[in-house]
Amino acid sequence: MSFSNNLHHPQRLWHFHGGLHLEECKALSNGTEIRPMPAPEKLYIPLAQHIGGPAEAMVSIGETVLSGQKIGRAQGYISAPVHASSSGRVIDIGDYPVPHPSGLSAPCIVIQTDGEDRWPQPPASENYSSLQSGELRERIREAGIAGLGGALFPTSVKLNAGPEHKISTLIINAVECEPYISSDDRLMREQSADIINGIRILMHMLKPERCLLAIEDNKPQALDIMRQAVSESGLKQCLVCKIPTLYPSGGEKQLIRILTGKEVPWNGLPANIGILVQNVATVAAIAQAILQHRPLLSRIVTLTGQGIAKPGNYEVRIGTPLSDLIAFAGGYQQPPERLIMGGPMMGFTLHNDAVPITKGSNCIIATGRDELPEAVDALACTRCGQCERVCPAQLLPQQLYWYARARDMDKIQDYNLFDCIECGCCAHVCPSHIPLVQYYRFAKNEIWAKEEDKRKSDRARERHQAREARLARLEQQRKSRLRRKKEALNKKPGNKTADPKKTAIEAAMKRVAEKKKNRPATAANTQNLSADQEKQIQQANARRQATTEDPPA
Amino acid sequence: MSAILAITLMALLFGLLLGYAAVRFRVEGDPIVEKIDALLPQTQCGQCSYAGCRPYAEAIVAGEAEINRCPPGGEATMLALSDLLGVDPLPLDDEEAASKPKALAVIIEKDCIGCTLCIQACPVDAIVGAAKQMHTVIAEECTGCELCVPPCPVECIIMQPLQETINNWRWPLPTDENDTLLRNAS
C-alpha cells in the first residue's frame, strides 16, 4: 500500500474516552514571529532539567566556557548533560531558585556572559546516514536532549526501545492541545526544514514502516506548511494527520489511540505495541544536534497571558532568568495575578519570576485579572459523575479522590492511580471545585515516598545483618584462636613458656627416681653379717627401745 | 473386614504422607517474626528497649512487647502492625520521640579524634574511619538512629535534620483552605 496516496486521503481516526473542549486563547501569542532573545547578563543553568539523575558539574568557578560547551555530565543511564548556552565565565555553582511547584532551590551553574557568544571550532560535518543508530543515539544524548513537550524524559533513552521491540510507527506529536501554548505551532510555521531533517534522522535510526505527524485542526497554517514540506521532502512513508481539537489529544496514550486505535498495555510502553512518540520540538532539536553539532542550548517559549505587554514566542537560551525574558518582551502589562509555567491545565504556579527558563519551559503565562478562574473553596463531592465522563484514562476520579483523602494507598492503586496523566479534566469540570489533581499528586508522592522508605529499610536490614554476621564470625575466630593456644600449651609442657623453677624441680626428681631405680632393693650392709655384727645390732635395737620406752623427763 | 483393612491402610498412608511433609516442608523459624520485621523501619536504634528491630519483632510475637514502642516508625508502623496482628491500635509509647523530624548523623570532622567508638556503635556500618584517623558518616546509609552520639568522647557528632529539596519535596494534601469538608470535619 502506498502512503503517498494517503497524503490526499484522510487517515482513519479513532476516539479516546472523555476529553474537553477548552477555550483556546492561542491567538494571544501565535500571530507573531518567533523573536530570538540575546544572551542575558547571567545564565542560571540548573543541573537537573530532566527526569532521572541530575547532571554533575564538570567546570569550576572562574573557568571560561564557550557556547555549547558541556558543563555538566550525565550521571547514570537515565540522565542528560547540560551545556553552556552562551560563552562567558562560571561565577558560581550552588543552589538557586528553579522552576518547581515547591519554590525551592536546586544546584545551578551560574555563567556571567561575555556577550560574544564564542563557539568552539565546529567538527567536520559528515553524512549521518553512514552512522549506526547507536552512534546517533550517543550524539543525541551528548546534546542533552530531553522531551521538549514538557515531560523531559531523556530522548536517547526513549529512542533505545531495545532489539525486542520493532518500531513500526513513528508518531511526531505536534498536537499542542493545551490552551495558550503556541510554541510548536510557530516552530512548524517557521522551522519546518529542521523538523523534516529530524524526521529523516529518526526514520534512519528506527526504520519504521510509517511516520505520522499529528497536528490539531486549530492550527491550519502549520498544517498547510507541514503538508507541503513533507510532500516536497519526498518522505513517502510520512503522513501529516489533521486531528480534531480536543483536550488532551496530545497525551501520548491518547494520541496513539486517536491515530492507530490501539491501547498502550497497562504498565507497558508504546514500544510494546511497536509505536514511538516524539514531540515535534524534540525532533527539530535532534536535527540541530546531528546536522549542526549544536546541543540543546535554547528553546522556543510561549510568553503569554493578559499580564504580558507583548505576548508571543521567543527563542530563549536555557538558563535565562524569567524576569529578563519578561523585560525583553516589554515587561508586565499589569501586575500578574499568577505566573504559570506550562499550560493552564497541567502547569504549576511559580512563586516569582526569579527562576531560569529550562528545557521544559514551553510556556509562561502571566495571568491578568479574572483571566483564569480563581481558586474557590471546594464543596462536598456530590457524586455527580462528571469527572468520570471526561477522564481520558477511563479512571474513576471520585473513587481516587475518596481514597486519597482517606490515605488508603493500597486501595487507590487498585483503582489505577498511576494511569492518571494529571491532565486536570476532572478538576476542570468538578461543580464542587475540588482540587482533584492535587489529591492524586499527593497520593502518588506518598506512595513513592513509602516505596523509597521500604527500599532504604531493606538496605539497612541487609547491612545490619551483615554486621551481625561479621561480629559473630570475628568472635568465633577469636575463640578458636584462644582454644588453639591452650591446646598448644597443654601439649608441650617443657617449652619456653614453662616456669624454670618447676623445670629444675622436675629434673631433680627425675634424677632421684633414676638413682632409686639403679640402687639394689636392700642396703648392702644388712646381708651376710657375722655373729659379732648381729650381736651389735641387737644391742643397738635394745638401746633404742629403752630410750623410747623411758623418755627423759 | 475389607472395610477395616481399607481404613487402616488409608490411615497408614496418610500418616506416612503427613509425616514426610512435616519433615520435607518444615518451617524454619517463625514467619510472623519476618513479617513484623519487614514492617519495622530497620533503624536498629533500640528506642523500643530491644537490641534492634528483629529482637523487638521477636518480643512482639512472644507477647512481651506492645506494638507502640517504635518511635521512628511512628503511627504508620503502629497501624501496620495492628493491621497485621489483628490487635487494637494503641497510642504511641513515646509521642515526643515519634514526632522528631528525621535527621542524619554528621561528624564535625575537625573535632574528630579518631577514637573509633562511633564506628563500633553504628548498627549499619555507616561510619568509616580508622584509629587516630578522621571518621565520617556515609549519609546514604545512615538511618538516623543516634546510637553513635552518646559514645563520642568529644561530642563531635550532631544530628542534622533532613533538608527539604526538590527531590524529596511532596505535594501536600489539599488543606482546609480549599476543602470545606476537611475544614468542617476539623
What's the short version?
The complex is a heterodimer of chains A (553) and B (186). Chain A folds into 2 domains: 2-115 and 135-367, NADH-ubiquinone oxidoreductase 51kDa subunit (Rossmann fold, 3-Layer(aba) Sandwich), CATH 3.40.50; 386-445, no CATH class. In chain A, 37% of the residues lie in helices and 15% in strands.
What does this structure look like?
The complex is a heterodimer of chains A (553) and B (186). Chain A is α/β, with parallel strands linked by helices. Chain A folds into two domains: 347 residues, NADH-ubiquinone oxidoreductase 51kDa subunit (Rossmann fold, 3-Layer(aba) Sandwich), CATH 3.40.50; 60 residues, no CATH class. In chain A, the strands form four sheets. A six-stranded mixed beta sheet of chain A has the order 1-14-13-17-15-16, with helices on one face. Chain A has a four-stranded antiparallel beta sheet with strand order 2-8-7-4, with no helix packed on it. Chain B folds into two domains: 67 residues, Electron transport complex subunit B, putative Fe-S cluster (3-methyladenine DNA Glycosylase II, Chain A, domain 3, Orthogonal Bundle), CATH 1.10.15.40; 68 residues, 2-Layer Sandwich (Alpha-Beta Plaits). Helices cover 37% and strands 8% of the residues of chain B. In chain B, the strands form two sheets. Chain B has a two-stranded antiparallel sheet with strand order 1-4. A two-stranded antiparallel ribbon of chain B has the order 2-3. In chain B, strand 2 and strand 3 form a beta hairpin. Classes of the chains: A alpha/beta (553), B mainly alpha (186). Chains A and B meet through helix 14 of A and helix 7 of B.
